[in-house]
């Protein structure tokens, strides 16, 4: 059987599953959001000045960049869940969050004296960040891996890594409401490390969980 025929056969098998793929991913997204929110509210909750902080650009930016990651990675992982799914254009959108961070960091370095750079990068909550973003994102990652299992990804490691990015972005968006560190330098460093950890777990787990 030729490769193209095999891909078409796998795609037809995927479409014949008991639940349509689009429905499965919508349910996965809703469930992941609920689970992340529940863990966040039980363990941390929003910071006392969260509502007032919505008037500050740095606080709002944390949600812009994390939700941009969720949107771009979620679209990509849905495409990767289908055998032969075209992920090229969607992969380019995944560059948007890092570019936003690079721009914000550049503006911060320009606006803030060099003597304050290290203080803003280290912040006051780095260990909490590295602990709770993976904790909040663990259940969503499991949900997205199960959604991948419902499909037939031909690149499971890449699919799992992107699933980890979705889970990490979602967890980081919730955590941002608690985090007292609003500096783009802090977000670019510690949020990125925590999200990368979930992406690594997803890449390692997907070949085992999402086998077909």
UniProtKB/TrEMBL annotation:
It comes from the Bacteria. Signal peptide: none annotated. The keyword Membrane applies. The keyword Transmembrane applies. The chain crosses the membrane at residues 24-44, 59-81, 90-112, 124-148, 160-178, 190-210. Pfam families: NrsF. Keywords: Membrane, Transmembrane, Transmembrane helix. This is DUF1109 family protein. It comes from Ancylobacter tetraedralis.
């Amino acid at each position: 059987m030729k490769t193209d025929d095999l891909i078409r056969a796998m795609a037809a098998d995927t479409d014949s599953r008991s639940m349509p793929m689009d429905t499965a991913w919508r349910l996965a997204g809703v469930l992941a959001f609920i689970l992340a929110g529940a863990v966040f509210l039980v363990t941390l909750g929003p910071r006392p000045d969260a509502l007032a902080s919505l008037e500050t650009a740095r606080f709002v930016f944390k949600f812009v960049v994390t939700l941009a990651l969720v949107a771009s990675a979620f679209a990509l992982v849905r495409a990767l869940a289908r055998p032969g799914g075209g992920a090229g254009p969607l992969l380019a959108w995944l560059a948007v969050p890092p570019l936003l961070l690079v721009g914000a960091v550049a503006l911060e370095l320009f606006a803030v004296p060099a003597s304050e750079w290290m203080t803003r990068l280290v912040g006051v909550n780095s260990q909490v960040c590295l602990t709770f973003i993976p904790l909040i994102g663990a259940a969503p990652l499991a949900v997205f891996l199960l959604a991948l299992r419902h499909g037939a990804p031909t690149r499971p490691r890449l699919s799992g890594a992107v699933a980890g990015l979705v889970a990490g972005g979602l967890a980081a968006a919730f955590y941002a409401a608690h985090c007292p560190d609003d500096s783009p330098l802090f977000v670019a460093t510690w949020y990125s490390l925590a999200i990368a950890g979930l992406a690594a777990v997803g890449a390692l787990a997907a070949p085992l969980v999402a086998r077909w």
